[in-house]
Design a protein that fits this description.
Number of strands: 9
Bound molecules: FE2/S2 (inorganic) cluster
Number of domains: 1
Distance between the termini: 6 Å
CATH topology: Rieske Iron-sulfur Protein
Structural class: mainly beta
CATH superfamily: Rieske [2Fe-2S] iron-sulphur domain
Strand content: 35-45%
Length: 109
């Protein structure tokens, strides 16, 4: 099943945004980080206690924009694979949502 998540232009290059999509009859919140033509998508739920990660709606990155950062306790996650490198859930990972970009549209696949 393929579901449209957003337009690529809905995410500023080098930055993040939040979206809601329905997959398999279940509506979930997602975070997406764009690096040029590539987009990394994860469920918007921290592996620590399940809180949404964004500080303000759609703001998921640390100040240097090198990592995804949880707003609740500051855990840092690698953008490319969602692995937590520091914080109370170090060693755990965000839930990946495989995505692909076609003709300027981001799809969950
Ligand atoms: S809820 Fe994310 S680090 Fe605690």
């Amino acid at each position: 099943m393929t579901v449209e998540l957003c337009r690529l232009d809905d995410i500023a290059d080098g930055d993040s945004n939040r979206f809601v999509a329905e997959m398999g009859g279940v509506r979930r919140g997602y975070l997406a980080v764009r690096q040029g033509p590539r987009v990394f998508v994860y469920g918007n739920s921290c592996p620590h206690i399940g809180a949404p990660l964004d500080f303000l709606p759609g703001e998921f990155l640390n100040a240097e924009k090198t990592h995804i950062m949880c707003s609740t306790h500051g855990a840092l996650f690698r953008i490319e694979d969602g692995y937590c490198i520091s914080g109370p859930c170090a060693g755990k990972s965000l839930i990946p949502a495989p995505a692909e970009v076609r003709e300027g549209i981001v799809y969950l696949v």
